[in-house]
Amino acid sequence: xxxxxxxxxxxxxxxxxxxxxxxxxxxxxxxxxxxxxxxxxxxxxxxxxxxxxxxxxxxxxxxxxxxxxxxxxxxxxxxxxxxxxxxxxxxxxxxxxxxxxxxxxxxxxxxxxxxxxxxxxxxxx
Length: 125
Prior knowledge:
The chain has one helix at residues 11-14, and strands at 33-36, 44-49, 52-63, 69-75, 84-90, 95-99, 113-115. It is mostly beta strands.
């Protein structure tokens, strides 16, 4: 290939697919706080998968005691219309914000609904 025929790398060619967050287990430390949105007002991310940015509505945000954050999304990873549930660490280059919660000011993913990931242990409130 002649130098004039070479194409410079695009931003997408250097972005790696995002790292998934594993399910929480007791050996990981305290259970994360889980935040959800109503179905009609969920925010969304874009997930870089198979060379394209894929729209991914957010089902939940997990805030871990050590400061890490994971988003649980629904995403069609290959364009087949088969939707998968995935949890991804935030932030990372293979993820970007598509939009904030519908009907809310476009803030950095506010957390309107909070629920415990499991009931408190006996004697704790």
